[in-house]
Sequence to fold (394 residues):
Amino acid sequence: MGRYCNLVTYLPFNFLMHQLKISNRRPSTSYEIVISNGQLGLIGEWANNCVGGSAKKAAIVSNNIVFSLYGHKVQRDLKRAGFSVSVWLMKDGEQHKNVTSLNGLLEHLSNERLSRDDVVVALGGGVVGDLAGFASAIYLRGIRFLQVPTTLLAMIDSSVGGKTGINTGFGKNLVGAFHNPSGVVIDVDTLQTLSRRELTAGFCEAVKQGAIAGQRLFDRTADYLARFTPSSGKCDPEALTDVIAAQVAFKASIVKQDETETTNRTDAKSRKILNFGHTFGHALEKVTNYRRLRHGEAVGYGILLAAQLSKNIDLLPGYELELLNDVVHRVGRLPRIADISSESIYKALTFDKKSSAGKINWVLLKGIGKPLIIPENDIPRSALTKAVKAILKA
Fold:
């Protein structure tokens, strides 16, 4: 069915190639993730290698902002490699990852007469990648697509693992499919044009993954953030490339052994642990109509809530709660949420129940690198209420 990430190819700034092998029971379904700088100018050859030279048409999916920066370069190189290229641009923002946009993209693919041998190229952040991936999953019952993430959040999270989907009135990403890309190319140069806020959102996701991965990745991420200056948005590109490669390797290691997030798995290697910070984060996004917070910013608050809840039920030591809070605050300022009511949060949380047999499975921490999946029935309501009120006040 799907593809596993079996190989992460990491090209640092001196262009000496390093390879990280990730074990896989089905090598024939592996795909390649390329991390480098300046890769977009060579994307045509890379795309041909990913799809085996059989694709004649490529449909670029992007938004106006990203396409104005990188789209013409990508389009030009795909044409140079022999592709007939079309372009479809969506509106920017999580609120546009919806049925209307999906229908528009499907119509474009049909009008351009893409066949099952052809390919969709998702050029942009997680919204673009999720929408393009879902359209690719259902158009002609599935065609190939390539992920070209241009935000930090998409690079380390949504571009790896094959989760695709759209938002609806009854929740975030509850309509979608598991449909893995045929390849992912991460060009770190694109982060130089990213806004400070988008970098902050991406670093929130990096902290989340570090917290569930273990001390090594957590410390590596925290050390980078100690040198990163949120007020200026400046980042050390070579050091950031190292952090991205480590983050991608961790995400791939989880996805490869639980590709479709097995519903009855609750162990520490279940893909569900990647939802740390997402239960509360998704609720925040829903009650603000996906307009106030970037996804990563909502996850930042979700980390704080999950950590506080872990402390409230005597799982997480106080000093590790303080450490997590400190590292989250290093990423930059998060939007204000003090005007949001606890009642609206509890109502929004009920939508998360629909994806898990009517129950919320909270991902909490017993310590850095020690995630636990705990059913809501095992968490006292008073502990949750106390945590929610504390985070909304903060």
